[in-house]
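Input record (one chain):
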Amino acid sequence: MQLLKNKFDSRIFLFILFAIVMIVLFFINSWLVDNLRESVKKTAISYQTFFQRITSEESTDSSFKLSQVFNEILNKTDVPIIVLNEKEQTVYTTSRHFKDYDKEKIKETISQMEKAFKPLPIVQSLTISGQENTAKITQKLYYGETKMIKIIKVIPVVQVFIIVFFIAVVYFSYVLSKKNLQNALYVGIFKETAHQLGTPISSLL
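The corresponding structure, as predicted from the sequence alone:
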């Protein structure tokens, strides 16, 4: 009986330890996601600044060269990006993630991106004769989460399944141990009863 109790106590200890580890891992996961999202945001802001320089270039040749460089960068980045013309609501350029997407798929993706991050405006400075420079939003840069962030965000779900499985194992182990303990007690009682009944009978014989 004491042995079964010690085994049960050890299972409780292991369960508590396992739960603590899972909680710590959950907070580490959340911290990683937040930091990765912040890194993605900073990267998108860098692209926004670079693209605004392209749109503000007065020289056509220089602007074309910068545009080529920007497209090459988009082909290599891990951050999914879509630049949308503000007025016509047409796609100006995209990262490599969306090269084979049709208009409907692009529209759906932009909607998902807006939920994840606020789009960044591309502001172009316009010089009008006789007037001060005016700024106008010509495009918007939409960006989303990288594959790494999406994978890391799935980890807590896996952890929950592991915890549920472990709880189920501990529970059924406890029920089984309790049942075995009851059976052992019943066997002991039956043996003691049989012994007590057998003693008077043997003395009569």
